[in-house]
Amino acid sequence: MLETSARLLRLLSLLQTPRDWTGAELAERLSVSTRTVRNDVDRLRNLGYPVHGTRGSVGGYRLGAGAALPPLLLDDEEAVAVAIGLRTAAGGTILGIEETSMRALAKLEQVLPSRLRRRVNTLHRYAEAVPRDDTGPRVDADTLSSIAAACRDHIRLRFDYRSHDGSESRRDAEPYRLVNWGRRWYLVGFDVERADWRTYRVDRLHPRTPAGPRFTPRELPEEAVDRVRRGVSSAAWRHRAQVVVHASAERLAERINPAIGTITAVDDTRCLLDTGADTIEALAVHLGLLGVDFTVTAPPELVALVRELGNRYRRATKP
Description:
Organism: Actinoplanes flavus
Shape: elongated
InterPro entries: CBASS_pafABC_assoc_protein (IPR051534), DeoR_HTH (IPR001034), HTH_11 (IPR013196), Tscrpt_reg_HTH_DeoR_CS (IPR018356), WCX_dom (IPR057727), WH-like_DNA-bd_sf (IPR036388), WH_DNA-bd_sf (IPR036390), WYL_dom (IPR026881)
Keywords: DNA-binding, Transcription, Transcription regulation
Domain HTH deoR-type: 4-59
Protein name: WYL domain-containing protein
Strand content: 15-25%
Number of strands: 13
């Protein structure tokens, strides 16, 4: 009986891998006959595990989704990763999952072997996160789940939205991707009324019900992460500048990430960089770190500061 129980646990572990297994493959892995595999599959079904089977040369077995969540079998590394993830989630940016994460973590730690529990507790005891200056907004877990489901099922979202300047509006958008950056969540979607791609802060939107109709997915014009980087940076800039950089657009693009600004080619040796920063001083420093020559003509305060810094550096190198 013990041998049968151990074999069932091994079979369950194999079936939890997201793929189809033929009877012959399972029999080889378990060192049993295909008839024993069929009997063991029937035992798992009687225990409530939804094991789906298909006949034919390309048929096989797969563990499906059931009405209730079955026990999961994790190897050592998976168990440690889940425990660390649950502890991190308890202090994360998603509102409403702190208590749930701690309950799940308590259940997991209760059944962890002592050697794994020691690894998890050691990391928790001796590893600390540096508190952020800006704690950032919290996002409701149900809101994130609803948006993710709309992305998956290609369903339009209707929501009230508050822009960074405080203005409020009602939006109708086709959702495509959720992006987590730091302590904030962003939605990349196609705004139907404005007929253009937009990036929305999830903590600033309030979904309305019912949701909109299904839509035919469009092709994303760029990677969702790159779009968020560019959109978030430009929205946060207090000072902007257009600078002529004496290098090709391709060369400059290799030196900076999309969050720095937008690059437009002028010719083979020059390009236009539309960039910005929270302060004029930071903007001047960032330009100096480009590693290539540039020409700045506006705004006047940036021109004056670059000239002042140039004179200061020149004096600093005099013998």
